[in-house]
Amino acid sequence: MTVFQVVVGLVPHASPLRPLVPAEQTMFMPVIRQWTTAEVRALIREDRAWPRYELLDGELLVTPAPHWSHQYATLEFAVLLYAFLAQEPIGSALISPADLELKPGTITQPDVFVVPARTTLGHEPQDWPDVRGLLLAIEILSPSSLRNDRVLKRDFYLANSVHEYWIVDVEARVLERWRPAQDTAELLCDTAELAPSSARSSLTIDLPALFDRVEAKVRG
To answer: Helix, strand, or coil here: 6?
Structure first.
């Protein structure tokens, strides 16, 4: 008599144990929608700047209309860059809405950005498809954009021909400067300097004064 038979005999009405047969296991994985540039461009309307639609690695990023402090800060940086580039004609300062496809299959719209005066092909950029790199991209933080600006866009910009990426936190009155060769950001509270290698001079921005102007405009 085997051990199995003894155990069954001791347990009233016991039935033989079923053999362990390997069963196929089904795992349910969430389906993630992969968007295309054509689908995202179909959402973008020329008569409305918001919401803003962007596309990174197939993920659709939707940014609602920001607070006025965001817009005032955007204009402050744009005006300073515009004046600097009028003296140093190495590029053009622009603000979104935009349709940048720095990498095929992506769409980005930085709050403020500087397009080089010459493309990689050696001619003046005439339209969005001509832009394949930026001298500078600036994003003004909003509560809804923290993850996108500090993680997704940072990694994307630094890997796709953006010489500098600035993240501006108006409430904290600080600017994070990222460059492709750096592992960590420079946290700037006093001044921020833009010194492109193609320029003869540099732009120095007084950050406390800029943030004071933004706060004054918000207070009215």
So the answer is: helix
CA–CA dist 92, 135 (Å, integer): 9
Check if the beta carbon of residue 64 is closer than 8 Å to that of residue 50.
yes
Instruction: Quote the CA–CA distance of 61 and 53 in Å, as a whole number.
Output: 6
Q: Is 198 helix (H, G, I), strand (E, B) or coil?
A: coil
What pLDDT digit, counting tens, does each position of 113-142 carry?
A: 999 997 555 567 778 999 999 999 999 998
Beta bridge partners of residue 189, listed in sequence order: none
Beta carbons of 115 and 127 less than 8 angstroms apart: no
Give the residues across from 100 on adjacent strands: 108
Distances (CA, A) of 151 to 30, 76, 139, 156, 189: 22, 24, 12, 8, 21
User: H-helix or E-strand containing 7?
Assistant: helix 3-10
Q: Considering the entire predicted model, what is its pTM?
A: 0.82
Q: Which residues, in sequence order, are bridge partners of residue 140?
A: 168
Tokens of 170: 């108006």
| H/E run at residue 219 | helix 207-219
In the predicted structure, residue 23 carries a pLDDT above the cut 50: no
Count of residues making up the chain: 220
Helix (H) or strand (E) holding 81: helix 68-87
